[in-house]
Write a structure and sequence with these properties.
The protein is α/β, with parallel strands linked by helices. Helix content is 34%, strand content 25%.
Amino acid sequence: MTEEIIIAGFGGQGVLSMGKILAYSGIMQDKEVSWMPSYGPEMRGGTANVTVILSDDRISSPYLKVFDTAIILNQQSMDKFEESVKPGGILVYDPNGITHHPTRTDIKIFQINGSKLAAEMGNKKIFNMVVMGAFLKIKPIVKLENVLAGLKKSLPERYHHLIPLNEKAMKIGMNNVTPYQVASQFAHN
C-alpha cells in the first residue's frame, strides 16, 4: 500500500500540521513516510501545501506531480491541484470560499463543511481536524488512535488538553462528509 496525498489551502488553516499529524500517524503504524511542506514567504493568508506519502515500501522520491488524494481548502488550491489527482483518485474539499467546484468525473469527490462545523463547535482552529476526520472516513489509511498519538507528538505539551476536542472534531468530520456529484453541464474528464 502506498498513498500519495497533497493537502493544500491558505497558510493558517492547519495545512502543514495536518500533514505532519498524518505523517506521525503513519510512523506509529510502521509505515515509510515522507512529509514535504511548501509555502510562500507570506505564510498566514498565503497558499500552503504539503505532500505526504505513506507506504509499506521504501519511498523513492518525495517529489510528486500526481496524487492518489487531494485535500483542498481554498479556490487557488482547487485551481492548481484538481487536475493532479490520478484517475480513480479522491478529492476532498471544503466548499467554503470555493466558487468553481470540481468538475472531473474520473475521480471520487467528497465535500466536508469543515469551517462551518468547526465554527459550530466554537473553535475555528479545529477546522483541519474536522477535514482530517472526513478524509479518514473515506480512506482509513491510519487508525484513529495513531492519529491521536500523532497529535500528542506534534502538539506542544501546553496544548495536550485540546486533544479530546480534536478527537471530537475528527469524529464530526467522519460523520459529516458527503459525496459530491458533478453537475453534467460542468463535467469533464
